[in-house]
Amino acid sequence: MTALVTGCSLGLLVCTRCRATVRAIGAESSRCPRCGSPLHARRPRSLATTAALLITAALLYIPANLLPVMHTHTFFSDQDDTIMSGVISLAHQGSWPIALLVFFASIVVPLLKLVALGEILLAVSRKSLRYAQQRSRLFRLVEFVGRWSMLDVFAVSILVALVQVQSLAVVEVRPGALAFAAVVVLTMLAAQSFDERLLWDAKTGD
């Protein structure tokens, strides 16, 4: 089997900050001539850092969906709502578009990002040779979606605002919302800390 030609085999390094391609000269600790960032053949401790962030995010995903994200106080009652109960409440009130937006942005998308990053990390740890290109595309999709991850938090804010306006209630934030925001931030950091080139190491024999 013919070995693949890679930038590393040609003595080239890519700056992980500005994406400049630089010819490696001497030690790996040289700096990018464009932005001054340290250059590395592979980002140090990338796999361990990404795994730690992803595991923490996955653990927080459970309380983010089980704990109430808001407490609603009206003249007649007090009620705690999770993300799902808020979605159901919006659906019952006829706000299907908003209910679907909150459901996908706050439940489906974070879960898919966790699963996708987990599958990629598992493939790298096992040095899987299969589907490297597909996993690379999947990671880039997760990374792209990560740029808009704060929309997940915004969707929960919409949920809180709508409930407050439609029921003339006072709404207070509960721990579930904080856990959810932590999941969003941690998945963003996990994607940023992962070195995509690790996907190709097993295939190229690096």
Short description:
The chain is mainly α.
Topology, pairings included?
Layout: E1 12-14, E2 21-23, H1 46-66, E3 70-73, E4 78-81, H2 83-92, H3 96-125, H4 132-146, H5 150-166, E5 170-173, H6 175-193, H7 198-204
Antiparallel strand pairs: 1-2, 3-4, 3-5
Structural account:
Helix 1 (46-66) packs antiparallel against helix 6 and helix 2 runs antiparallel to helix 3. With 206 residues, the chain is mainly α. The strands form two sheets. A three-stranded antiparallel beta sheet has the order 4-3-5. A two-stranded antiparallel sheet has the order 1-2. It is built from seven helices and five strands. It has helices at 46-66, 83-92, 96-125, 132-146, 150-166, 175-193, 198-204; strands at residues 12-14, 21-23, 70-73, 78-81, 170-173. The chain folds into two domains: 1-41; 45-204.
Task: State the distance separating the first and last CA atoms.
Answer: 15 Å
> How much is the average pLDDT?
78
Number of strands: 5
User: How are the strands ordered across the major sheet?
Assistant: 4-3-5
Structural class by SSE content: mainly alpha
Q: The biggest beta sheet, please?
A: 3 strands, antiparallel
Beta-strand residue fraction:
5-15%
Helix content: 55-70%
Number of domains: 2
> Which geometry do the CA atoms define?
elongated
Helix segment count? 7
Order of helices and strands: EEHEEHHHHEHH
List the uncertain runs.
none
The whole-angstrom Rg is: 22 Å
Short key terms for the protein model shown above:
58% helix, three-stranded antiparallel beta sheet, 7 helices, 206 residues, mainly alpha
